[in-house]
Design brief:
The structure is a single chain. It contains three helices and 30 strands. By secondary structure, the chain is mainly beta. It has two domains: about 170 residues, no CATH class; about 250 residues, Regulator of chromosome condensation 1/beta-lactamase-inhibitor protein II (Methylamine Dehydrogenase, Chain H, 7 Propeller). Strands 22, 23, 24, 25, 26, 27, 28, 29 and 30 form a nine-stranded mixed beta sheet that branches. A three-stranded antiparallel beta sheet has the order 1-2-3. It is globular and about 60 Å long. The two termini are about 35 Å apart. The relative contact order is 0.13. The N terminus is likely disordered.
């Protein structure tokens, strides 16, 4: 297959889409107990607030993710190893060896997800909080005396203390889990929030029916970023930590008596609430955003970069989006073939004139969770027709794929061969990258429909 390169266009598509560093709130910004931390756009960590145990003295390393609770901070380095610093009275800062995809610090204990998707915990084991369950997990959150984790099938498992029902999650599937002092919250697949456990301050009472893209549980209050980018908080508000800031944000983190968030327009940090020791006074920084990976082995031939004319192809008409997808129930692979994608400017969020057509395969890693298969993304050709009515929009700032309409044909193996089964038509689909290391996308929005005609642009 040849590659047609418009300077910067195809290379950006091939590198950016499958190799993003997902920037979830508990990953790149964290409002802890008495100090806060963030990963800057150069991948180094900066912390502010109290520092009695050296918890804000981050090592001079490149980080993928951070987490801090009370007086301890842990992070995952670029090589996927763990490092912790700060208070170490119970061994919670003695980071274990190995390779990890996520870490979460709790009260005198910490837990992390290993590359094999199992969980490792260390530190104080009161109420069994440092004794994790067996299984495969995609995300976890550690709190005061309990932890909860999201299994790869979307179900929630909790362990540790369960004095107020914080360790008894509701039934159903979730896309994110977050833990407070004696309560827990989860983001359901329909983007609504469910909370359980202690409710003395209303911390388990999120706005009914509200749709969120990300949530964070603090000590006795919680906050979330709504689908429209605004923030909503609920629970204890004695220092205005649950007051809603104005503007639009991409991430939020609720701490002890303060909260911090990342602004959508410029990726700067805004904090509010209790400000002793300057824990709610962030420095003038911008946080880590999705980065290109220069080691992507699917790079187009070098001669195409230097001279695009060497890789020109015969112009072909764009293919209809809803005719080009099928889901194989045997292999659990969703195949998208020759799909037109348009790029969106990171800063203005306006569509650009840059477009390209690609092929992709996504493997189902659990209910409504798809992972882009390694090396499966292939650039087919560039297409610059502004009148094209069907395309996928990729917004790197929010790490989202927006698909206007998609016909999914279920392929079923009946023993005598593979045949096409029931066809389901969806519109307004949004897939969001949810994993710091792997190109895993979750369907955060979709609507079943009978026609794609109302999704076409005029």
């Amino acid at each position: 297959m040849k590659y047609l390169i418009s300077k910067g266009l195809a290379l950006t598509l091939l590198l950016l889409l499958p190799y993003l560093s997902y920037a979830d709130s508990p990953l790149v910004i964290f409002a802890g107990n008495v100090h806060s931390c963030a990963i800057q756009d150069d991948s180094t960590v900066i912390c502010w607030g109290a520092n009695p145990y050296g918890q804000k003295n981050a090592p001079d390393e490149k980080f993928l993710q951070i987490s801090n609770y009370y007086n301890t901070t842990c992070g995952i380095l670029k090589n996927n190893s763990l490092t912790c610093w700060g208070y170490n009275g119970y061994g919670e800062a003695n980071s274990p060896g190995g390779s990890y995809s996520q870490v979460s610090t709790g009260y005198n204990h910490s837990c992390a997800i290993k590359d094999d998707e199992s969980i490792k915990c260390w530190g104080h084991n009161h109420s069994g909080r440092a004794t994790p369950p067996k299984g495969k997990f995609s995300q976890l959150s550690s709190g005061l005396y309990h932890n909860c984790a999201l299994k790869t099938d979307g179900k929630v498992v909790c362990w540790g203390l369960n004095s107020s029902g914080e360790g008894k999650p509701p039934k159903g599937t979730f896309t994110q889990i977050t833990v407070g002092n004696a309560y827990s919250c989860g983001l359901r697949t329909d983007n609504t929030v469910a909370c359980w456990g202690k409710n003395n301050y209303g911390q388990t009472n999120p706005e009914y029916g509200a749709k969120f893209s990300q949530i964070s549980a603090g000590t006795d209050h919680a906050c979330g970023v709504k689908i429209d980018g605004t923030i909503d908080c609920w629970g204890y508000n004695n220092y205005s930590q649950a007051s809603t800031p104005s503007g639009k944000f991409s991430k939020v983190s609720a701490g002890y008596q303060h909260s911090c968030a990342v602004r959508l327009d410029d990726s700067t940090v805004h904090c509010w609430g209790f400000n002793t020791d300057g824990r709610a006074s962030p420095p003038d920084i911008t946080v880590l955003k999705p980065k290109e990976d220069p080691t992507d082995p699917t790079d187009p031939p070098k001669e195409c970069e230097e001279d695009p004319s060497k890789c020109e192809e015969t112009e072909e008409p764009p293919l209809e989006l809803e005719e080009l997808a099928f889901y194989d129930t045997d292999t659990k692979i969703l195949t998208l073939s020759a799909i037109l994608i348009t790029f969106v400017d990171d800063f203005t969020l306006e569509e650009t004139d840059e477009k390209a057509i690609f092929e992709a395969e996504l493997e189902n890693k659990g209910k409504q969770r798809f992972e882009l298969l390694p090396w499966s993304l292939k650039l087919v050709k560039m297409y610059n027709d502004k009148d094209t009515t069907k395309y996928i929009k990729y917004i790197s700032k929010t790490s989202e794929l927006e698909i206007p309409c998609l016909k999914v044909a279920r392929k079923v193996n009946l023993g005598g061969g593979t045949v096409t089964g029931k066809i389901v038509l969806y519109k307004d689909i949004i897939l969001r990258q949810r994993h710091i290391k792997y190109p895993i996308f979750e369907i955060t929005q979709r609507t079943e429909t009978t026609s794609c005609s109302d999704t076409e642009k005029e």
